[in-house]
Amino acid sequence: MGVAFCVALRDEASRLVEMLKEQGFDVASVCCKCGAADKASLGVPEEYKTRGKQVFEAACNPILQAEMLNRAGAQVNIIVGLCIGHDMLFTKNSKAPVTILIVKDRLLGHNPIKGLKR
Asked: Does residue 103 sit within a domain?
């Protein structure tokens, strides 16, 4: 199994990986910041960086996440909190079927259905 996770949900992803291993699964996991490409080197203006100007900030790389889990031979991949859009890129590039366990939604505590309730 593969687990593609957002760095902001690394604790949750770690617990998931432990649970899957306890159940006898071979698990490979990969963080969204894999590859460590600086946003500035990709042309992202300094004002769009979240950690501040002139500070190294790794960009997310969902395509590389998928490729790494493809190389690991994952037969099923689980998404844990990838950003909207990044989840689509990951899914498109994954050779294995993909399911989403946690949708990233900081405003509503990773429970986006709350936004649809009145």
From this structure: yes
pLDDT 10s digits, 72-87: 999 999 999 999 899 9
Question: Does residue 37 form part of some domain?
Answer: no
- Written as one string, the DSSP assignment of 60-102 is P-HHHHHHHHHHTT-SSEEEESPPTTHHHHHHHH-SS-EEEEE
Which pLDDT value is given to residue 79? 98
Domain assignment of residue 102, yes or no: yes
* Predicted TM-score (pTM) above 0.70: yes
Q: Which domain holds residue 77?
A: 2-32+61-116
